[in-house]
Amino acid sequence: MVKAVEEHNFTDEISCPATFSPPKEINLEEVAADVCADMVNATLDPNNSYAIVPSKTGVTFDRVLAQSMYDSAAAGQEIIVPLTVAQPDVTTEDLQTKLFRDTLASYYTYAGGTEARLQNISKAAASCSGTILLPGESFSYNQTLGERTLERGYQKAGAYSYNEVIEEIGGGICQVSSTIFSAVLYTELAVDERNNHSMPVSYLPQGMDAAVSWGSLDFVFRNTYDYPVKLNVSFDGYTIGVEILGTKEDGHYIDIRLDQLDSYSAKTTRLVYDSNGSLISEELIAYSNYQNPNEKKNTEDQEQTTETETETENGDNSGEYTNNNENSETAAGETGGNDGTGDGTGDDDSDRYWEVVEDPYGDSIGDQVDLYGDAPDYTYGGTYDTEAYWE
Question: How confident is the model at residue 268 (pLDDT cuts 50, 70, 90)?
């Protein structure tokens, strides 16, 4: 044919053989790979200074339906397969405008004790502050702080061991974990692990403390919100402040109920209300069982009296017997009452304070003052059996 055209031969008949072949089969999996995409909410990248990762719209189609339409189509017929589009719950614009917009809750406790204890508190607060949890991520107090050692800057200070106050490396850091736990209670964050101390603490009412011990007891909570949350923890030498930032979209209000069980036990319940004040949910957070801090003291006093009487009867009244429990006097002098829970000062009662009147060790039992004068009275009871110490 080309030769005939070149020779301008337009009169001869030219025969052109034709080859016929069926249309190429379409691979729907390959089409899906090109077209479909998973829906992705906007989030933050922890490996890139928590920069915003843009959201993506989800696209998919029914492969069975598409194959059926293709198989039944006539040669040369065009078919249109419907797509399913899923918009992200959190768009890039949403995250940019709502990230850490709201204070979910805040809580404050007053700290006292030795310089070593205050240094431990300051170090623990600094380790926790600035922590960001993406949706579904968990916060572990032990993992955040790491092991408490002298080499890492922690010092010996008062801590609980069973129902005694002892000197332990990292003493005092439980007040930071307890203050964080108290703030978490007033959010919808999930509490996955929490333990109470062996004895009540002075800086919080029973049922609101969170004991930790490296290698055994931990305090763990999880972000159940659609947006990231941020933990701000401060310590100015007197007050531990915890602020949990996030994004409120449902108008829920959280309250906590502490139920009296007996002399030294409490039940902590979280109540969630909608914006109209109707109760949505009632969640049992924890049972707390404590030892009576006076039990060991009373036993020691009886033993000391018996031994002194025996020595006197034997004619030995030289005063050589000494009480080896360095904290027995402190423990007796610090025992005081619980007035209940302090009221809030924020718009949603999320700021709460407890004040310790006298607490030389900072970890022992002490009188508490309700700063706002409207806290209910609580008494508790129960037992706690463990050999771990609480820092």
Answer: very high
Tokens of 318: 């030289």
Decide if 245 contacts 103 (C-beta within 8 A): yes
Q: What span, in angstroms and rounded, lies between the C-alpha atoms of 366 and 357?
A: 7
Indicate the pTM of the whole model: 0.71
Of 6-20, 105-119, 365-379, where does mean pLDDT reach its minimum? 365-379
The whole-angstrom separation of Cα 161 and Cα 296 is 12
Kindly tell me if the per-residue pLDDT of 112 is higher than 80: yes
What gap in Å lies between CA 231 and CA 128, rounded to an integer? Answer: 7
Among 156-160, 345-349, 355-359, the range with the most confident prediction by mean pLDDT is: 156-160
CA 255 – CA 105 distance, rounded (Å): 11
Measured in Å, how far apart are the chain's first and last C-alpha atoms? Answer: 96
Look at residue 288 and tell me whether its pLDDT is greater than 90: yes
CA distance linking residue 324 with residue 327, whole number of Å: 9
296 vs 202: CA distance, rounded Å: 18
Taking every pair of C-alpha atoms in the chain, what is the biggest distance, in angstroms?
149
Burial 95-119 (b: 16+ CB within 10 A, else e): beebbbeebbbbbbbbbbbbebbbe
What is the rounded distance in angstroms from the CA atom of residue 192 to the CA atom of residue 236?
Answer: 29
Quick one: which of 125, 136, 144, 142 has its CA closest to 232? 125
pLDDT in tens, 64-94: 998 898 888 888 788 899 999 999 999 999 9
For 329-344, the DSSP string reads HHHHHH-------PPB
Q: Look at the block and give the residue holding tokens 């030769």.
A: 3
- Three-state SS letters, 18-59: CCCCCCCCCCHHHHHHHHCECCECCEEECCCCCEEECCECEE
Starting at the edge strand found earlier in the chain, the sheet holding 279-289 runs 253-262, 265-273, 279-289
To which residue do tokens 């005081």 refer? 336
